[in-house]
Amino acid sequence: MGNLSRNLKNAAIAFLVPLPSILFYISFLNHCQHLHDDPKSNDDVSLSPLWKWCYDHPLLLANFLFFFNVNVLFWVISHILSSNWMIDLYWTVIPVMLAHYYSTHPLAQFNLWRSRIAILLTWVWSLRLTHNYFRREKWQWGAKEDWRFTDMRVQYGKHWWWISFFAVYVSQQVFLIGICLPLYAIHSVDAPLNIWDFVAIVVCLTGIVIAFFADTQLHEFVTRNEKLKKLGKPVVANLDRGLWQFSRHPNYIGEQLWWWGLVIFAWGLGQGWTFVGSLINTMCLAYVTKLVEDRMLKQAYRAEAYRLYQKTTSVWIPWFKSSAIAEKDKNN
Fold first, then answer.
1. Measured between alpha carbons, how far is residue 170 from residues 71, 148, 244, 284 in Å?
2. Where is the chain membrane-spanning (predicted)?
3. At what angle do helices 58-66 and 94-104 cross, to 10 degrees?
């Protein structure tokens, strides 16, 4: 009963927490409705200073809402709940919210088909990742926080209360606003569909499919090991089947293809500068990859198998196993 009560409480919090931003933005749109109906009415006296600033600076407004609703509010809630679980869930939600925000802002201008395609793809990506989140968490809301945050909580001790504001939340603003910049570009330029749009669609869909199958194979591997452990049988030390026989992190490469696919949309519109967010995300993921592999090597039952896996299998980009290296290692 206690778990059910906590689950319902966390679900309620998750649904209610974005309301400040949503209500603020709806109020802003209502104040700007006359500008949409009659663009010639856009002058310094038609809006109050607050709404005029929101109207003139869509990208800054997105950052403003993120800072107060996510950085500050999520941070406060994390201390009340003693967990930073909510930012993981909202990683799957915020890009969808930003896509709709950029498309509905009064200054938005875009090709309707490109906008629809980009938003639909973002929804498909989000549903896949949300499904994977709940499947991994055994369909519970906020069962646990990301292990990296838990490790940092121990590492920083009594200082974690303020360090977490920057390490968990301000950093997420840089990543999420940054990687969603192509969605801003898509809704800032009205141009006909071109060959780059079709390339972008293929890359985005490829990334989503690879990530889906990689995460599904990982979930099945973990579930199988949990069953073996309950039966008192030896667990399988390492996953090296399916997509995982060609890459040590196929789920990561799938995610990277998705975000860089969005960049291709923007590139085709002459907004190549938006690659900066995906570049930062890729660099961060390279560091996360190292953390994950170090964690694997610290687990005694799988350390030896994982070292061999490192020698024979590509880190990210899928490639054939280096069987010669594996054979040499066995002979030694």
1. 6, 16, 33, 14
2. 12-29, 59-78, 85-103, 160-186, 193-214, 257-288
3. 150
Residue for token digits 């201008």? 109
- To the question of pTM greater than 0.90 for the whole model, the response is yes
User: N- to C-terminal Cα distance for the chain?
Assistant: 55
Which residue reads 């990561």 in tokens?
252
Is 246 in contact with 319 (CB distance < 8 Å)? yes
Q: Is 253 left (phi over 0), alpha (psi -120 to 50) or beta?
A: alpha
- Amino acid identity at 164: S
Buried b (16+ CB within 10 A) or exposed e, 152-170: bbeeeeeebeeebbebbbe
pLDDT digit string, tens, across residues 120-176: 999 999 999 999 999 999 999 998 899 899 999 999 999 999 999 999 999 999 999
Query: What is the rounded CA–CA span in Å between residue 281 and residue 279?
Result: 5
